[in-house]
Design brief:
Chains A, B: Keywords: DNA-binding. Chains A, B: It comes from Pseudomonas kuykendallii. Chains A, B: Pfam families: TetR_C_24, TetR_N. Two copies of one chain form a homodimer. The first copy, chain A, is mostly helical and 213 residues long. The first copy, chain A, has one domain: Orthogonal Bundle (Tetracycline Repressor, domain 2), CATH 1.10.357. Chain A has ten helices and no strands. Chain A is globular, with a radius of gyration of 20 Å. At the A-B interface, α7, α8 and α10 of A face α7, α8 and α10 of B. The first copy, chain A, binds a DNA duplex (30 and 30 nucleotides) through α1, α2 and α3.
DNA sequence: CAAACATCTGAACGTTGGTTCACTTCTTGT
DNA sequence: ACAAGAAGTGAACCAACGTTCAGATGTTTG
């Protein structure tokens, strides 16, 4: 016997795997999933393309994992707020505002996660995570409905509506063309405007008693 | 001189072009844009692949035209209703219901138009048509706001929210897996349920005075 | 019918980008 | 140090499709 997987080795493996994911995320955050190619990624990491396959079965798997980890963070942040303190309406308002703010602060990544056309394997993740957002809203809606803070007959459907409304209202302002316009000094909507309108929209839509801050 | 483009020829050209578009639409309606390949399409039409290029510069152009014509029909139908008779809230309700019903009645095509991952050139069209829907809603919102039927401060943003809510709430139930579930006899949401919930959602969201039928 | 020219054909080509694999370079345990 | 075997390399390979083009087939006019 002359070789065995030692702890040190497994550590380095784990670290490299993470480094690959980090580089991949950078790439996506910079130029969307379109710019995530195996050759370019390997180059970024400083390894050969073949080595990527020691850590991921295929590009699809890798891309899906990048998507999942980035989206997972968002779901977590949203969960934190929606399950936090305060009455349901306040929590909903906070959740929406936070989501918009986070998306705005890393618009390019947000656009890639929300709207960029991607290969099927990644798109599956998108559907999955949209469901996860929906699940969180659904929970809150049921709680709110039970205590009379909201009026919703079909929490699942309404939750999907919320997810759609939030995503769509942000896609426009986050899209590359819109951002280019902003940087060129042309007028365009600002975060506060979208965020306020969106929040009011969501609160009203679920039958919350009155506008919340 | 021994040949000139005669009216009969141009007619046949026009007809063939239309036949190509029809076949392409069938294909998309059946298996989404993923199943729209030049070879398969040429086969459907009964011509050679090369002949397709006598009518369309590229696949992207062809696909975009298919998308546009299908979406154009929907925009038209929506415009009809939103600009029709009745107070703004009633028209909004009708528009939403009609949109849902139409999508439901050709679910596969609707899914392809709303949510299927597609090549960039087609996705551009999607963005464009989403804007068109938004524009229609925006118009109605402004009219409604002016006469006090709605309470919307940012019609453009709210219009996007409506488009997103409608699309997203339908994507789930229209998606291939959901439909497979329905056909397998497993329980799933029905059109009436989604349509009602969605309509209520939209009316409340724009601050309409009270639920409309 | 025959010249002149458009249109059609479909196998071959090109491009893009993921994936492989024979070979080299490390690590580890004795 | 050295054997045993894992990990790394990167050019070649491959698959999938859109696109092309030289030759065959139609169509029109005199």
């Amino acid at each position: 016997m002359a070789y065995r997987t030692t702890p040190a080795r497994m550590d380095r493996d784990e670290q490299l795997r993470q480094r690959i994911l980090d580089c991949a995320l950078s790439r996506v955050a910079g130029g969307g999933f379109a710019s995530l190619t195996m050759v370019a990624l390997a180059d970024d990491v400083g390894i050969a393309t073949g080595s990527l396959y020691r850590h991921f079965h295929s590009k699809g798997e890798l891309a899906a994992e990048v998507f999942a980890s980035a989206s997972g963070r968002e779901v977590e942040a949203l969960r934190e707020v929606l399950r936090g303190d305060g009455d349901p309406a306040t929590r909903l308002a906070r959740g929406v505002r936070q989501f918009a703010a986070r998306a705005w602060s890393s618009r390019s990544l947000a656009f890639a996660l929300i709207a960029e056309p991607v290969e099927a394997e990644v798109d599956e993740q998108r559907l999955l995570y949209r469901e996860a957002y929906g699940e969180l809203f659904c929970e809150l809606l049921e709680e709110g409905a039970a205590q009379g803070a909201f009026q919703v007959a079909q929490p699942r459907v309404i939750a999907a509506c919320l997810v759609g409304a939030i995503a769509e209202s942000l896609v426009g302002p986050l899209s590359p063309p819109a951002w280019a316009a902003r940087e060129a000094g042309r007028p365009s909507v600002e975060l506060a405007v979208v965020s306020d309108a969106l929040t009011t929209f969501c609160l009203r839509a679920v039958g919350a008693k009155e506008p919340h801050p």
